[in-house]
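can u pls check wat happens w/ zinc ion
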Amino acid sequence: MFFIHTDRVWKHEFADTQRKAQEDATAAGDDQETKTCQECGTTNYDKKFYEEFQILICYACRRALPEYALITKSAAKADWLVTDTDLYHLPFMSKPNKAKPQWGNISLYVTKMVEQLSMNRYKHT
Ligand SMILES: [Zn+2]
């Protein structure tokens, strides 16, 4: 009887320790959370894209999903009817204009963000 009893106690304590370990792991995870692609969950996300836009997306999903495509400022204004003032608040990626270097850098926006901006702008009309 004594033996069975200790066995039960041991199991109970073991389960407790396991739960504790899990809780610790979860708590630690908050500090250095594993960043994953918000579409497919891979940890191989595009770090540059995350730095610029705070969007966690991997290269494959970016290529596959049109809403993550980068569009120029003029395309954003033409396609989504947003203004310079609207776009002022959006993060963008600055790239040298290879075709017309004298025009300076071109600003690239994420389609999805421009779309949301446009929807917010026109939702009450
Ligand atoms: Zn992905």
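The first strand starts at residue 70 and ends at 72.
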